[in-house]
Amino acid sequence: MSAGRDQDTRDAQAALSGTAITSFRLNAQFLAVAEELSRPAGLTAARWQVLGAVLPQPLPAAGIARAMGITRQSVQRIADLLVEQGLAAWEPNPAHRRAKLLRPTAEGRAAVAAIEPGHAEFARRLAAEVGGTERLTAALAALADLSAALERLAP
Description:
By secondary structure, this protein is mainly alpha-helical.
């Protein structure tokens, strides 16, 4: 390998490590913010995440897990708690007899709606802090590109 290529490899390794460490920290920061935003609605970040995944349409636990990048068992546990609380319900899945679909109840939709004002305010503040909505949108695009690349390279 040439010296330039070795340096490129070292630079790529440093960028990968830095990106991973920053992503881990960012994940913890987002979870802390989500806990604060969801608490007044009687939810946790995890329960908000699962409810949010099924707002557009009912999904099986495996579908929610794929969308969120976590295990089906974790989603199942949270979904069962949401059902116990009356915030979600299981319904038959016409495509798969055993994999029921989770859907939010009216109470679940109301809980998520109660988070909206705080979420909107925090989004406004975060966008201002990073230099505007365009910069926040660009960060989202970069993260989505990185996630898609990792998905393509996954062993």
